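Trying the structure run again after the queue cleared.
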Amino acid sequence: MSSGFEWDSWLGTVAAIAISIVSAAAALVLLALISALVSRRLAWVRDFARRDRNAMIATTVVVALWIACSVTEPAAQTWWPAASRLFLIATIITGSWLLAASVSFGFERLIAREETVLVGPEARRRRTQLLVIHRLVLVTIGVLALGTVLFTFPEMRAVGTSLLASAGIVSIIAGLAAQSILGNLIAGVQVAFTDAIRVGDVVVVEGEWGRIGEINLSYVVVYIWDERRLVVPCSYFTTTPIETWTRRSDKILGTVFMDLDWRVPMDALRAEFRRIVEASSAWDGRSSSALVTDAQGGFVTVRFVMSSKDSDDQWALRCEVREKIMAWLQREHPEALPRTRVDLGSGTTAE
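Done. Tokens:
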């Protein structure tokens, strides 16, 4: 008779679980219908529902199963406290997942909106700050979730109390051991909010030219022009001078130096240089000049200065000017090409 009673109780558990899952599915379908209706006016609601779908399903299923089991036969079993704790942990984890997904969606929307409103250095500054805040929030959610999970165990509470009671020496040792880690974390926040560098800035770091590709809490990734990646601790940017080409504006001046013979026709050279830059789409029209900046060792140094709207155009323009001036000199004025003269001691000079 008792076995029949137990069988009936477990049938009730199965029925309760089935009802809970069906109810959870109905709630999810209802939310999907509501989001579909709202998204007709607010397009971002559809994207939000798509982003949070998996986390929402996981959280809803876990909570539904927990409720179904807590009001039926499993709640009367000796193993239920352990199972209930597992349900609690699963709820904390899935809920943190749902919260993190929602926060990530919000920050991505905010970054996308800022990029449509702002341009240039201001846009990079805001994007960098939002990325760092985003990562800080996600790390905070993860730490709080882990701490909450650990403190569901009474043993961990006792250990935590004991550690707090004797934390004097331990905190000093931990502080010394974690000095570099914490220094990098603080430097990461400092880099983001002091506007020293921003995602997308053109910089020269350790002799390498590239763009700031990622700013994390402890390190920065520089995208080198030849597709290499330079990973640098955040503390580097707070203690070491760096060269940045886009601090206030993307506009930049570039130079090309050429050592030429003294017979170079400067007027004709200036006219040809002007023709080259005016015909180039990489020149922004702000500035251009060709001047002799040095004369020694049998050569004159001609400096060509030209402006562009950003560093990419500047690189292309410098290469174009260098190549076309060289070709023009070879074709029109070969006497202007650099050469070495030797005095033979008899009043004659050989080239």
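Residues 105 and 149 are 25 Å apart (CA to CA). Worth checking whether this holds up in the mutant runs.
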